[in-house]
Records
---
Amino acid sequence: MLLTATLVGRLPTAMAPLALLLAARADHAGTALGALLAALYALCGAVGQPLLGRAVDRRRLAGVALAAATVAGTAFTALAVVGTGRDPLLSAALVAVAGLATPPLEAGLRAMWPRLVAQQDQQAAFALDATAQEAVYVAGPALATVLCQLASPALALLGCAILGLAGTALVASRQPARVLNPVRREAHWLGPLRSPGLLVLLGAATLLGASLGSFNVYALAAADHHGAGWLAGALPAALSLGSLVGGIMWARLAHSATADQLLRTVSVRFAAPFALFLLTPEPALAVAAAALPGLFLAPWLATAFQLGDRLAPQGTATEAAAWLVAVIGLGGAAGTALAGQLSTAGPVAVAALTLANAVAAALTLAVRR
């Protein structure tokens, strides 16, 4: 129930970018403004998560998440009423507030897993969480599209407010979010960032995000190269499907190695298949190849969050998980931007960047244990 509630509460993070793009187009404000608003939402979400995560570590998830969801829901509702085309500055301010106030449900739940399940079951719990996350990024854009088509983009933005508040309220009503007392922590302005091991993990997670962001651009470049528009959606979908399968398999496996050893192994296996895209395979083969790195994506995330919890100084587990969420998002934005500049050179150049990012993530973990 707790996992389901967090998935509902996290739907706006996947719905909002597409809803903002469609809303800007419907308001005749232009796709460029919609893209800027979507990017601003993602950026502000990345900034807000560690701050809210620190607040959760000092208090409780229920109160912090409910307050944040209320603020974000109010901003989405106001945006649905005023639209995106009348006053771009007002729209940007509301989007920034909605992003900054994104409830820290993902980080909050991942910080709770080690306290909710026995140690021998933690790997399965983290893997289940990482696998279920794929449902958010499949259902979110689909739901935003349906609401926009059946009604209007304003209803999609209002849906972000309603689902965010509803999911957060369900999480807050559960005993772990209300009763678990904060762990005593040593006061330090750096919080979990004073852990050298966590900094290395955050660096690798940033590069992982960059590889995912550049792969989305590769999908577009490959679609143009082969004259097959369906590839733009099929390649990321195949990656997500592979992640879903890999996460389920990972949850069922028993591992004797430590989390850091597992993460290094998984990182290499995630990176290696991207070399196949340097060969510019035919569309059908490209889709099949995209599932291969996906098989190790959910295991990468599950192991990284499990390791991050162990590396975080006492009392900073939620903020540490929030930093992981944030840097993956920031890496994705950076990877998308850089790959966009290379896309004119063709899909091979973008594939090389994707491979380089994934290999760099693996090397970062290998150089510093």
---
Amino acid sequence: MTNREAPTRGRTPEPAGPPPRCIVAVPVRNEVDRIGACLRALAGQEGIGAGALGVVLFLNNCTDGTAEAVADLARPLGLPLRVIEREYPGAQAGWARREAMEAAAAWLGEGTAEGVILTTDADSRVPPDWVARNLAALARGADAVAGRIALDGDEAARLPDALHARGRLEGTYEALLVALEGLIDPIPHDPWPRHATRSGATLAVRLPAYLAVGGMPALPLGEDRAFVEALLRMDARVRHDPEIVVVTSGRLDGRAPGGAADTMRRRCERPESPCDARLEPVGRALVRYAWARRLRRLYGAGRLGRTGLWAPWLRIGPAGTRRIAGLPTLGAALAAIDAQSPLLARRPLRPGALPRHIAVARLLLAGLRRGARGLPVLGAVRPGPPVLGRASEEAGNA
């Protein structure tokens, strides 16, 4: 691996004094055609004050003139910018994002131990209020903020109609599941309306929370989701803000193997490939949400250590039960229970099953919103063999 200083042609000198209070970390690989739009969007941020924002570009294995394009853009944009270039044969998406965010953390660390790290992608365009909206969510008490993503309109128009149709079904079902979860297991710091997206195209995190979880994991795939899950395990307050939307590429020739572009291409080639793991049968989802609510209440009452109240019904053995009871945070306990309980095992749907589950979820949501009584699965918040038996059968058969 080699580490080179960025080219100096056109560079904007970093201002003297303390670092900006917000640093955007952007991993970049061969994005000569898109990096300009990304940087112009970052330079156009509004409502945050002069000098509040800096940018780290982590250029890894670029061979298409991206570095030269960045050098030409830097001075006209007038944006405090640090550019790092690396050549590394083993580079992958999670490693590159981690390196970018570590550089951002180091820059913030030159001042106080506070500040905010944001991250987006080089093929994405953030709206003018992106930073301001993230800061507002953090100011309301969040430790980290996840936004939503939308495909670039021109590129999305070139995608097959079948892919759009599947996307609409998945989006509809996910929104219904999120609404059901919000009613059954409400979380004060992440209230409805919210979403379920956890994408590196739009994440923000306070520096202390970033450091507390050991930074962004250097995973080949899914580093963004793993990072948010690590935050949740330490009981960090993560806000899924539906008002934060970033436009990202709709191309099928992505830079990260196994990433979003590969997923879309695979779905074009295999239309009945399974949905995301979160899109599980509605009965199983209701069991999950009801048990999360039950466990959250037990923890709040100091009774999670009384494992007889939950472990037998979730089919977790004595060794696993003892380990879970000794975990230091609710988030860690919930993650461990979710991973070990056969009742909560993920069984993602096939696209063909989505319409039926959408119809059921709509009926359930309407009933819950009317204050309906007598839904059997909701009895899972008061565990007992008859109710859980019916609920688990419904989950398995849905």
